[in-house]
Amino acid sequence: GKIPPVPSGPGDKPLVKEGLLLKQTSSFQRWKRRYFKLRGRTLYYAKDSKSLIFDEVDLSDASVAETSTKNINNSFTVITPFRKLMLCAESRKEMEDWISALKSVQKWETYEASQFNMEHFSGMHNWYACSHARPTFCNVCREALPGVTSHGLSCEVCKFKAHKRCAVRSTNNCKWTTLASIGNDIIEDEDGVSMPHQWLEGNLPVSAKCVVCDRNCGSVRRLQDWRCLWCKAIVHNCCKEQLGKVCPLGQCKVSIIPPTALNSIDSDGFWKATIPSCSSPLLVLVNSKSGDNQGVKFLRRFKQLLNPAQVFDLMNGGPQLGLRLFQKFETFRILVCGGDGSVGWVLSELDKLSLHKQCQLGVLPLGTGNDLARVLGWGGLCDDDAQLLQILEKLERATTKMLDRWSVMTYEVPTKQTPAIVKEEDPSDSPLQITQYADSVATHLTKILDSDKHSDVISSAKFLCGTVNDFVAEVGKAYERATENKEEADVMAKKCAMLNEKLDSLVKALSEDANAQLVPSESISPDESDTDQSRPFRSREQLMLRANSLKKALRQIIDQAEKGNSSPYVTATTCDGPRAGLRFCSEKCVMNNYFGIGLDAKISLEFNNKRDEHPKKCSSRTKNMMWYGVLGTKELVQKTYKNLEQRVQLECDGVPMSLPSLQGLAVLNIPSYAGGINFWGGTKEDNNFGAPSFDDKKLEVVAVFGSMQMAMSRVINLQHHRIAQCRQVKITILGDEGVPVQVDGEAWIQPPGIVQIVHKNRAQMLTRDRAFESTLKSWEDKRKGDSRPARPRLNSQQSMEYLTEEECAQVQQLGLVADTLINRCVCVCL
């Protein structure tokens, strides 16, 4: 019926969700944009939000389903006894939010997109529309489902089948997740609680055989026989009682968390484990958008193989939700299904929760580059969900190696001159802002070191002395207020006085140099060379000697002040170097794979911008690689960062490095770059460098000469230019313009300043050891051969039952020939 929009008064039903969706019309199946509101158990929609008349749909007996397995257009169907609505959202995340909201109002639950979707723990089915190539029957009414496209519904977790009209009458008997969901089927004995079978009737595969009698199961005429959702055992109706009641959980029993092991979620958001049987449970985190939305297929398949409560979508709440639920387990394993960005996201959350010591992380490659998965032994791509059983088996046999992780620290040179002193109304009550003094010191030290003009050096040095003098005065006052120990205060006063003397001496020398006349050495007469008025200015080395002495004294005062219990200034991470002065850096991000500056970073930045502008043009792995090729070809002509060595300075372990003519630099933590390129050029030790490894706390620095070099590296193993192998890298960006940099594929423009890469921590990674797998498999095969029971001795009648028809005919013919031969022998003897 037509009704006016419901006003949002205090006594009205609360607004659960609203927004724009595409609705398929009944005529010609066209799509039109409509505005939807969900209030209580009623869905309202109209042309726009300002409409006065809304259509309404009663959701009391409704069911919601995705339109297909792949669901490329993010569409879903709302099915009621009287009508059917086909709707389409802009993104998969928006579609999942609408489906969750529509399901929540049926249970009278409050919908919150930020919280965990509790439908996984309620037993509700997750429907999607599908067609069937063979006879299939409804688990509700037991009648056949038509084979026409999308005329039936299937649960993505337990494969429960239903007509669209029967879905609203189906019971909430989806795959169990917790101890409470098992209900009356639970098995209790003297040893405690055991896991029972969870049976689903009918719709068995063609080659199904009973585990009891080893005969064919299932039927194409009716719904019959049973299948366990956990151990995948198939039995006849008559053989069901002969099978044991306790479920062995099947091939994935090591990775499965049985529902009997999970009680509920406590108030802190952690699992309450009932039994300690799960020594190392598996947490699966899937990026549903990875690999052209192939992650959706893997997400559903993992829910079928494991407990749905241990499988999470990174696009629906991020990794924090799953990690918090598993935080109380002493040890657990994590399988990240996605690209390098997904792995970095999970590792960053592990940093925040401090979980690196109790978990090991494996990778299932679904992204574009997958460099980390390559070096860990999991391959460059996995797009077949039928291999998940083998992957879980290999994950159980994986070994653990440590992955070095690196902090990328940055400091930006201030573009404007920062005032040396910030005057306030009451300086005694306000804290000292040390960062303002630090910026001023850094700016003027840079001018002193880089400028060739005598006047600039003198003016900057004078300004620097004034800044330090004011800073020392403020530190002295603050220290007197902060400390009660008179001896410490006296020591600080003496150091401040000593520093003031050095400052006065330096200022006096600078004043003399400022008044001195710059006269060429050949024009100075011997008589005038000894006079003070015509003395040439002091050399830069002499000024630097005094400046370094000043810096050392200032450092001592800061160290002394930091020992105070209530130090009134802010501390920061310093990046000191031979030419850096006092620099204050902050952590920009964490590097797991590699760091790039120049050419490769510009290509990554342009690709990221292109993907943000046109997501559909970068929706698959093939399209992404094509875009990288196009952008690389463009740089082959433009050469934007030719002679990059003139714009950056490189230091490795504090030693300045001379750079050849190049277009980029690559700092490697793993021997795989940009989708499998070995930029280091080898994996073995030589006379100059050690073997590259991701667990040696060392970085490899390589020069990037051009896009042609990067393209050819994918085809042949070129001899790359190795610069250094070190434990710390520092890159100084000169000039007034920023340079593109990228970390693990995420790029940005870094302003002039300093980029320093230092070791942060180490993460436990699950690596695939193929040699170990081969040895273990051969040992298992040999063990099976040794334990094979000897064939029992049988009588003639039993022996005939074990032979084929051809073998029986041959035995009978042999008997006839033997009988004929015996008769002839008897005749000859007679």
TrEMBL record:
InterPro entries: ATP-NAD_kinase_N, C1-like_sf, DGK, Diacylglycerol_kin_accessory, Diacylglycerol_kinase_cat_dom, NAD/diacylglycerol_kinase_sf, PH-like_dom_sf, PH_domain. Its main location: membrane. It catalyses: a 1,2-diacyl-sn-glycerol + ATP = a 1,2-diacyl-sn-glycero-3-phosphate + ADP + H(+); 1,2-di-(9Z-octadecenoyl)-sn-glycerol + ATP = 1,2-di-(9Z-octadecenoyl)-sn-glycero-3-phosphate + ADP + H(+). Residues 517-538, 777-796 are annotated as: Disordered. Keywords: ATP-binding, Cell membrane, Cytoplasm, Kinase, Lipid metabolism, Membrane, Metal-binding, Nucleotide-binding, Phosphoprotein, Repeat, Transferase, Zinc, Zinc-finger. Residues 124-174, 196-247 form the Phorbol-ester/DAG-type domain. One of its GO terms (biological process) is glycerolipid metabolic process. SMART domains: C1, DAGKa, DAGKc, PH. Pathway: Glycerolipid metabolism; Lipid metabolism; glycerolipid metabolism. GO terms for cellular component: cytoplasm; plasma membrane. Residues 14-107 form the PH domain. Residues 777-789 have a biased composition (Basic and acidic residues). The keyword Nucleotide-binding applies. Its EC number is 2.7.1.107. Coiled coil: none annotated. It is found in: Cell membrane; Cytoplasm. Belongs to the eukaryotic diacylglycerol kinase family. This is Diacylglycerol kinase. The gene is LOC107562901.
